[in-house]
Design brief:
208 residues, mainly alpha, 12 helices, 56% helix
């Protein structure tokens, strides 16, 4: 449990002492920032935002240039400034400053995709609505282990393939199980198969 995701992942970036509504908003914001961004960079951006008091109102009162400086260098930071502002306005107008409690409503928000929505449901609302964290690590490892009936081309395709056979009570474990493993051992290039405890049962390792 010493990979970046284990202490800097999105579920560790919110202020646990904040009121529930603010905590849930911070969870969603950290997920929006995390897309195409390393955990360490997301955590740094969240720290800078939280230092100014991270609420729907504070974000809406922050001008775009300042918000950009606070979240830089997260991936696609200019687009994320726009999405964060738009989503925060919707939350204030339609949800009383809280975040929606359904996947359908979450993915309707600007800049929120299915993976973020499922993770938000799990972390913010404590509801397992699907396998949340099928990112590039989970996608890569599931294919290397042949956990999909056929090779999948995208994380979203992998999520659907895993949900077909994996018991629902195990869905919430996938993130903690595979993301850190992918960051440290089952690397995209030159995976450390020689040091991996799965070496004897992994088809990819057998092929090396």
């Amino acid at each position: 449990k010493d990979a970046p995701v284990d202490h800097l992942g999105t579920e560790h970036c919110y202020d646990s002492s904040a009121p529930p509504k603010v905590r849930r908003y911070q969870v969603l914001l950290s997920l929006m920032l995390s897309s195409q961004t390393k955990d360490q960079v997301t955590a740094g951006a969240m720290q800078r935002l939280r230092a100014r008091g991270l609420t729907v109102d504070s974000i809406l009162q922050t001008d775009d240039a300042t918000l950009g400086k606070l979240i830089y260098p997260v991936g696609f930071w200019r687009s994320k400034v726009k999405y964060i502002k738009q989503t925060s306005a919707i939350l204030q107008q339609h949800y009383g400053g809280d975040i929606p409690a359904s996947v359908a409503e979450l993915v309707a928000l600007p800049g929120v995709g299915p993976k973020m929505a499922h993770l938000a449901m799990a972390v913010a609302w404590g509801t397992v609505s699907g396998i949340a964290a099928v990112d590039t690590h989970v996608h890569r490892i599931a294919n290397r282990l042949r956990w999909t009936k056929k090779a999948t081309k995208s994380p979203e395709e992998t999520r659907a393939a895993l949900e077909e056979w994996l018991p629902r009570e195990l869905w919430h474990e996938i993130n903690g199980l595979l993301v850190g493993f992918g960051q440290q051992t089952c690397l995209p290039v030159h995976p450390r198969c020689h040091a991996c405890l799965n070496q004897a049962l992994c088809p990819a390792a057998q092929g090396l």
